Amino acid sequence: MIRVVLADDQSLVRAGFRVLLEAAADIAVVGEAENGGIAVALARRHLPDIVLMDLRMPEIDGLTATKRITSDPALEHVRVVVLTTYAEDENVFRALHAGASGFLVKDIEPEDLQQAVRVVAGGESLLAPAVTRSVIEAFVRNGSQARQAPAAGRVASLTAREREVVRLVGRGLSNDEIADALVVSPLTSKTHVSRAMSKLGVRDRAQLVVLAYESGLVTPGNGHSG
């Protein structure tokens, strides 16, 4: 059973998401929060698989709550997925940079919501939609120079093959697609991704994508290596 905490300041929104999620036999909502502080407390109490986190909440916002969850070693296995009506809100990028595993717009279809929860609970990130990469690209373009040098220094520790794998992850390829591109087995592809994540100290593929852009391995707008 996939355990979910819902964090949104609107009770009707939480109720709607609860109904949609619990229509699936393999998903249970274990807590609801009207602000980020309560979301963090519920995450610590219930240790859910997923926290669906609205960004714009009173008292403690979703970005602050995301940072608190992703930086807490006791919550290492809790994944945050940002909920927003603002697909280009800079806080979406900041949440991804802080360790969120992806984001969803609130008008998502019920089946897509359930599948998104399953994908993240399975250890992947919500990176496929073009809008996700466009958000990352937009905010790497703006002020990327301050971040590029340290990010480039981090990826310098990778082998040439691992850097290529990170570049392909940054372009949005799955492990199977990376395996096809590099003519290796899916298991080898997965191993390269895991080793790169371990060396770089990132939680998941979302952070790997951000780092790929910030380091210049992928350049905004064209998906090619820099």
Your description of this structure?
The chain has 226 residues and is α/β, with parallel strands linked by helices. Helices cover 54% and strands 12% of the residues. The chain has helices at residues 11-22, 36-46, 62-70, 90-98, 110-121, 130-141, 145-155, 160-170, 175-182, 186-200, 205-215; strands spanning 2-7, 27-33, 50-54, 79-84, 103-105. Strands 2-1-3-4-5 form a 5-stranded parallel β-sheet, with helices on both faces. The longest helix has 15 residues, at 186-200. It starts with a strand and ends in an 11-residue tail after the last helix. The mean pLDDT is 83.
Explain the layout of strands and helices.
Blueprint: E1 2-7, H1 11-22, E2 27-33, H2 36-46, E3 50-54, H3 62-70, E4 79-84, H4 90-98, E5 103-105, H5 110-121, H6 130-141, H7 145-155, H8 160-170, H9 175-182, H10 186-200, H11 205-215
Parallel strand pairs: 1-2, 1-3, 3-4, 4-5
Helix pairs in contact: 2-3, 3-4, 6-11, 7-11, 8-10, 8-11, 9-10
Globally, the shape reads: globular
Q: What oligomerization state is this entry in?
A: single chain
Catalogue the unreliable spans.
none
Proportion of helical residues? 40-55%
**SSE-based structural type:** alpha/beta
Read across the widest sheet, the strand sequence of neighbours is 2-1-3-4-5
Strand count, sense and closure of the main sheet?
5 strands, parallel
